[in-house]
Amino acid sequence: MLSFPLISTGLAAALALMSIGGGLYEFSVVDPAWPERRDLIQPDLGGLSRRRFWIPAHTAFEIALIVALIACWSAPDARFWLLIAFATHVVMRVWSAFDFIPKALAFERLASKAMDQDAARRWTQRSRLRLPLDLVVGLSMLLAFATVIRSL
What we know:
The chain is mostly helical. The protein has helices at 4-33, 50-72, 76-109, 117-127, 130-151. The protein starts with a helix and ends with a helix.
């Protein structure tokens, strides 16, 4: 039987997995190429706009996660996993807001010739450290979803 906790937790879990996929795509396809082809991450030069994916993806996940927390607040086991996902996601978003996003925007704005290739490579290497946080969020969301399923 479909219930609000099941739907909201399932949606939030699916969106968390989508973020993992986006991260895997970035660091396996985009990040190895752009330090040498900087135009790839410069939308004004025809490159991809990371904002077009990440802003809607994070916004949708964050709304779904909050809704799932509200829907499952009275279920301690599901709430536990949702709070782990929430806390881990907050850590990743704060780190991104103060480190990754400002530098990514700076790389997008710089003239292609003016970019420091070593700084770009360091950014891409540090960016990979966000994947374990995304994996914790995704696993926690799946465990919350499984907990809700078992409670039906």
